């Protein structure tokens, strides 16, 4: 957002805050939008039509962090993350597609995660929503292509951001691990933003932002036995943290 505004793009940022956050550039517009509310999405579309008469790019970036073992995480936490991380993206795509079809142009960018491509243990709800965003994006890329509409999905690995502040739920052990991975990551948001903007400008259908993410993704595709051993090792370590000797489960 900041990079787009800095180069002269007309931008409207959206967030849950009633007042404009300090992180929103002065050159950008602002509106309050809860991605769980279709009414808010309709109001956002009406503003875009009124101010701009059209739309070149929608970035669906809202999301919350979650994680937990399948027998520990509550169903209420599943429902919450599906409503935000997956259905929030669906609502955005559903809302703007008629306008983009009218124009016969446009670009939808959905921010998923490396977790949408690489599915480690102890993160079922988060992995499922992000994999859903990847599947949605691929589907719409084909579906909307005849109207000249491009669709990209962004799949970053862990990087330093405030995502960890949205953690909630019963599985505190997994939350603590997730917080460490985010707050201690080597990559920061500025680096990821620059890579994503380049990918958007080049209309890449899948945008991977770090070397680690590319290695993990391609190991799953082309070295599946290695990938399976890595995931199985993670699962054994998770079992040990739960006080269980994996050998006892064989």
Structure description:
The protein is globular. It has 250 residues and is α/β, with parallel strands linked by helices. The protein starts with a helix and ends in a 9-residue tail after the last helix. The strands form two sheets. The protein has a four-stranded parallel β-sheet. A two-stranded parallel ribbon has the order 1-2. Helix 3 links the parallel strand 3 (57-60) and strand 4. Helices cover 50% and strands 11% of the residues. Helix 2 runs parallel beside helix 3 (75-103) and helix 7 packs across helix 8 (224-241). It has helices spanning 2-6, 38-51, 75-103, 124-144, 172-183, 189-201, 211-222, 224-241; strands spanning 12-15, 29-32, 57-60, 106-111, 149-155, 206-208. The mean pLDDT is 88. The protein is built from eight helices and six strands, in the order H-E-E-H-E-H-E-H-E-H-H-E-H-H.
Instruction: Please count the beta strands (DSSP E, at least 2 residues each).
Output: 6
Principal-axis shape equals globular
Q: How are the strands ordered across the major sheet?
A: 3-4-5-6
Low-confidence stretches: none
Rg over CA atoms, rounded to whole Å, is 19 Å
**Alpha carbon gap, first and last residue:** 50 Å
Topology (elements, then pairings):
Elements: H1 2-6, E1 12-15, E2 29-32, H2 38-51, E3 57-60, H3 75-103, E4 106-111, H4 124-144, E5 149-155, H5 172-183, H6 189-201, E6 206-208, H7 211-222, H8 224-241
Parallel strand pairs: 1-2, 3-4, 4-5, 5-6
Helix pairs in contact: 2-3, 3-4, 7-8
């Amino acid at each position: 957002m900041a990079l787009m505004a800095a180069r002269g793009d007309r931008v409207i940022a959206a967030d849950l805050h009633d007042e404009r956050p300090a992180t929103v550039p002065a050159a950008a517009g602002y509106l309050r939008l809860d991605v769980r509310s279709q009414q808010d999405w309709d109001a956002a579309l009406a503003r875009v039509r009124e101010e701009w008469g059209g739309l070149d790019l929608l970035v669906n970036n809202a999301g919350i962090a979650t994680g937990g073992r399948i027998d520990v995480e509550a169903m209420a936490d599943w429902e919450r993350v599906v409503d935000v991380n997956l259905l929030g993206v669906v609502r955005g795509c559903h809302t703007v597609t008629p306008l983009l079809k009218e124009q016969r142009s446009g670009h939808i960018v959905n921010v998923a995660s490396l977790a949408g491509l690489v599915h480690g243990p102890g993160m079922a709800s988060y992995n499922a929503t992000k994999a859903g965003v990847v599947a949605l994006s691929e589907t719409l890329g084909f579906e909307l292509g005849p109207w000249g509409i491009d669709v990209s999905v962004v799949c970053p690995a862990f990087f330093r951001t405030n995502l960890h502040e949205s953690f909630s739920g019963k599985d505190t052990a997994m939350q603590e691990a997730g917080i460490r991975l985010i707050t201690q990551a080597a990559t920061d948001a500025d680096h990821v933003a620059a890579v994503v903007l380049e990918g958007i400008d080049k209309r890449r259908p899948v945008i991977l932002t770090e070397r680690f993410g590319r290695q993990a993704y391609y190991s799953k595709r082309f070295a599946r036995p290695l990938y399976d051993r890595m995931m199985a090792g993670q699962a054994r370590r998770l079992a040990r943290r739960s006080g269980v000797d994996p050998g006892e489960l064989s």
